[in-house]
Design goal:
This is SpoVR family protein. The longest helix is centred in the middle third of the chain and has 22 residues, at 237-258. It is built from 19 helices and nine strands. The chain has a four-stranded mixed β-sheet with strand order 6-7-8-9, covered by helices on one side. It is of the alpha/beta class and 459 residues long. The N and C termini lie far apart (57 Å).
Length: 459
């Protein structure tokens, strides 16, 4: 603990003792109080120290405007790991930071016990802050050696492709076999050997002894960061390192993205319960903290009475409360371990709760009007989950590397269920072509449903 001040230090220690008593199981948490402007930088960059890029500055300005308008307030940022790292705003009140400490412990319990967090932490390691700082240092060295223009061009491409990883593959994966002959020979058992030598049997040609070069990629490759890092014709070592660094951080953050509703709801449930059972808190502090809790988990933003976007705190908290009330805490712990948001919403958001929370699918009109389009539970669930598919990005694969080094990308529009923003796609292709250094084409469909090819201007 690095929290200055005996009062908050005392409360944090006693809240942790209570958390352990109630069965929370988590890696140690290092808390740190920081100024509000530093907290904003952490939230925008995603890490306290990260590779420099102009896009983070744009995000910072947007966040500053939102906060100034009262639409966004950051209470804490927590990084899962061993240990976990949590940052609190030193300008927050004592009740607010007491609540935040309890909230963070809920996050820490979720991160240690959820299967998705555990899998990705095993691959990416539990020391993200130190790793990110080391990568930032290497990129600073590249800036000095190669100049801002060259380094920024590589970062433009890598960060534009930040969501384009294959979460079903391993973080550290081997390259494709160079030729078919590189496949490992399987031992032939005695029976098969006798069968192959029967009179009249033709020897079978082995697929492992072909002379042709296999296609690259051998199947559609959705991990674009990995593919470009390893197969771009003229990529230099430092450029490859940038792509792999962005990819590794994207792997680290995926569980946070894929479990946001579950995770925020679990942390909200536990901060409410810890505060309720913390009989050592003064009454006025407890009441102020509970007021902060109600502000966090309310269904609407500000004073609006129409919920056009889901508050993950409110939705997750409500589902967990229902699960624990009906099934008990041990069943909830098992769900916490096994599910992500997809299973959580589809299996545990039922019609009764959706109606109670007034969840619906809406459509907007050109005149600015809003109309409720659907209250069906299946439509509501899929509307909540739609932005989460494929890390929130269109599903695009590297489909063919041509002899001349040009690259074809294929938009999987059939399973993707959505079209492409052509203007954005063209900008991203330009970024990619600068590092691929050959023409790059993206095959998709147009607004009329007909095939469409978007190409880089390098063609």
């Amino acid at each position: 603990m690095t929290l200055p001040g005996s009062t908050i230090q005392d409360y944090s220690k006693r809240i942790e003792d209570l958390a352990h008593k109630l069965g929370l199981d988590y890696y140690p948490v290092d808390f740190e109080l920081v100024p509000n402007n530093f907290m904003m930088e952490i939230a925008v960059y995603g890490l306290p120290v990260r590779m420099p890029h102009w896009s983070f500055g744009v995000r910072y300005i947007h966040q500053l405007i939102r906060q100034g308008m009262g639409h966004s307030r950051i209470f804490e940022v927590m990084f899962p790991g061993d240990p976990c790292h949590a940052y609190l705003v030193n300008e927050n009140t004592l009740p607010e930071n007491t609540l935040v400490i309890a909230h963070v412990l809920g996050h820490a319990d979720f991160a240690k016990n959820n299967h998705l967090f555990a899998r990705f932490m095993e691959m990416a390691g539990g020391h993200i802050l130190e790793q990110a700082a080391a990568r930032a240092h290497r990129i600073d060295a590249a800036l000095e050696e190669h100049g801002q223009e060259r380094v920024e061009a590589v970062l433009d491409a890598a960060l534009a492709l930040e969501p384009h990883i294959d979460v079903n593959k391993e973080l550290h994966r081997p390259l494709y076999p160079l030729t078919e002959a590189h496949h490992e020979e399987k031992p032939v058992d005695a029976f098969t050997k006798r069968f192959q030598n029967l009179p009249g049997e033709k020897p079978q040609s082995s697929p492992h002894h072909g002379t042709g070069k296999p296609a690259v990629p051998p199947q559609p490759e959705y991990d674009l960061l990995w593919f470009i890092a390893n197969y771009a014709p003229e990529l230099e070592g430092w450029e490859r390192d940038i792509f792999l660094a962005v990819r590794e951080e994207s792997f680290y953050f995926y569980p946070v993205f894929a479990c946001q509703i579950m995770n925020e709801g679990w942390a909200s449930y536990w901060h409410a319960r810890l505060l309720r059972e913390a009989d050592f808190l003064p009454q006025d502090l407890y009441l102020s903290a509970i007021k902060a809790h109600s502000d966090v988990v309310r269904p609407y933003a500000g004073d609006n009475q129409l919920a056009l976007a889901v508050n993950p705190y409110h939705l997750g908290f409500s589902i967990w409360e229902k699960i624990i009330e009906e099934r008990g805490i041990e069943a909830a712990r098992q769900i916490c371990k096994e599910e992500d948001d997809f299973g959580f919403i589809r299996n545990y958001l039922d019609t009764e709760l959706a109606e109670k929370l007034e969840l619906f699918v809406y459509e907007s009109h050109n005149d600015g009007g809003i109309k409720i389009a659907n209250r069906d539970i299946y439509a509501v669930r899929e509307a909540i989950l739609a932005p989460k598919f494929n890390y929130g990005a269109p599903r695009v694969a590297a489909s063919k590397l041509h002899v001349d080094g040009s690259l074809d990308l294929q938009h999987d529009y059939e399973s993707d269920g959505r079209g492409l923003d052509v203007g954005r796609a063209e900008r991203v292709l330009e970024y990619i072509s600068r590092v691929w250094r050959r023409p790059v084409s993206l095959h998709t469909i147009g607004s009329n449903g007909n095939p469409k090819v978007v190409s880089s201007k390098n063609n």
